[in-house]
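Q:
My hope is that you can spare some time for a protein that puzzles me. I hope you can help me see how the letters and the tokens relate. Thank you; the sequence and its tokens follow:
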Amino acid sequence: MALIQRLPQEVVNRIAAGEVIVRPANAVKDDGCGIPYDSLPILCERFTTSKLQKFEDLRAMETFGFRGEALSSLSQVSKVFVRTKIQSEPLGVSASYIDGKLQEQSQCAALDGTIIDARQLFYNNSTRLLAFKNVAEETSKVVEVVQRFAILHPSVRFNLNHGKSLSTKGNGDRKAVIATLLGPEYAKDMVPLELSSAKLHYKLDALASNPISLVTAQSNPGKKKYFVLYVNNRIVHSDYFKRAIDTVFADANMAYLFLYMDLQIEPFCIDVNVHSSKERVEFLNGDAIIDEVKEALRTRILRSTATQDTSNNLSQTVIRNFTVSLVEKGPPSPSPSASETSLVASPLTTRPENHLRTDYRQQRLDHFRLEQLESQPTQLIEATDHVSRLQDPIIFQEDDALSNRLAEQQLVLVGAIDCEHVLMHDAANRLVLLDFVTLTQELFYDIYIFGFGHLGSYEIQSPLDVRRLLSASSNDIDIDETIEFFKAHECIMRRYFSVEFLVEEENLLLSKIPSLLDGYCPQLERIPEFLSDLLSIQFTEDGFDIGDAARSTAKFFTLKKEFCEDGKINTLLGAAAQFESFADVIRLLLLPRMKKQLIPPSHWAYDGAAPSPFRWVTSNSDIYKVFERC
């Protein structure tokens, strides 16, 4: 076995360059505003950049590149010539680079900005060079990059010469740019969509071609479909996002020719340091943002296709009448004889004990009438290493099979015995008893941990006297010391717990409580217990135990049978007034959120054994053995 040795820096640079510059399309650059001449000697060296000074700057990164690898990689696999001029200088500078090193530099006439000319791409990598014999394919990739940026920036004029020139006017008309680049049929009858959320810290500007029938789209497979996604003005490829959008159109039996989405997210909510080419990014609350986009698209699709349905129905009526007339003119069909009828085989049927009577794919209408209540967003706090250490075990110990079962909604609600026990029917015809206390505590624990620092809050219209609340607590606590504790940690309580106090005439009043789920108000009878539980959290000079805080808050948001009388939820705030009973809260709010957001741990194996909150009660086949009916 050969000795382990450190790779030469030249080899390291060329290997890294092969990951960043994969094909000619990755070498497309903008002209910018010019490069300071003092920076030219290190322009193409690796990890030299003007965008990033320290690691924390990544939290507010808005530029396309930031690691200082693009130009370095380009110079490792091609011969790079740079012509640049800054506005304050009368002349520009021309420079050439090979393997990241400056070769020549001289003054020249130039316009403001920078022109980067990469020649003989992959001249030193024959294997990669042989892979690019199809010039037309590589040219199309370059054209695609220019097209995407031209669509994003209609106010900028783009020119590309490659035999067939590509040019935009730069007049700010995005629809005209789309028509010029892709064809007038793509820009016809476009449907705009604007969406934003202060709580999720995003804004969406979208433009879709008028949806067409799925049958029409399938009958013309040669017609290319375009989906372009930008995140903070960066071209991004997201199969997950695209699949979610395609599902919305497919569910409506529709298709689109062109869909443009420009997603603007606060820089501190996004991680751009995921992929070397920056084509993939990770952002906070991705699932929630996609859900809102999908719902908005559904509304737009139904609205834009409403006028089409009338004409479609008319054409179907004509075809149906014409078909009937043909049948009437034809010879009558002979009726089968009794003997022939007796020989006809009956279709195979499912045994009654195995017949699935509650299909999990069917939904009730009231799932779609739920009103959205917006809680008040609080200031976003940067997640600490402590939060990451709590998040990682939740993800790594997830039971994938159980997560898929919940995500695919293979459980149908039978009914709520009380607010702590729920019966459901699964796809295997089993009756399952859910320990809803355990499930909701885990759900709200996950919501707190993954949403740490940007929880919402409910404002209490008539603030509550903390002394009276603590006196109602069943825990043995010193009320005076507790009040002083809350006063001393008032800032932490407000920023990290969304719990806010007011001081009036030496009385401490509770004015805000946390909100973990829009439209869901915790039982306010649990406030005394919640305040006393906050005392059990370990506070130190460096902070507090976030895990304890999450458990205390999750417990506060869990429904307690003691405060559910005659099927009603006792509440002093009225935030849950849209629900008539705890059964509605479970069916319309908590269960749908569990199916989307709950991360079940591995010790919750779906086998009906403890400590799993899923207990098998019986099955259709077992009941049939006793009653011979289901």
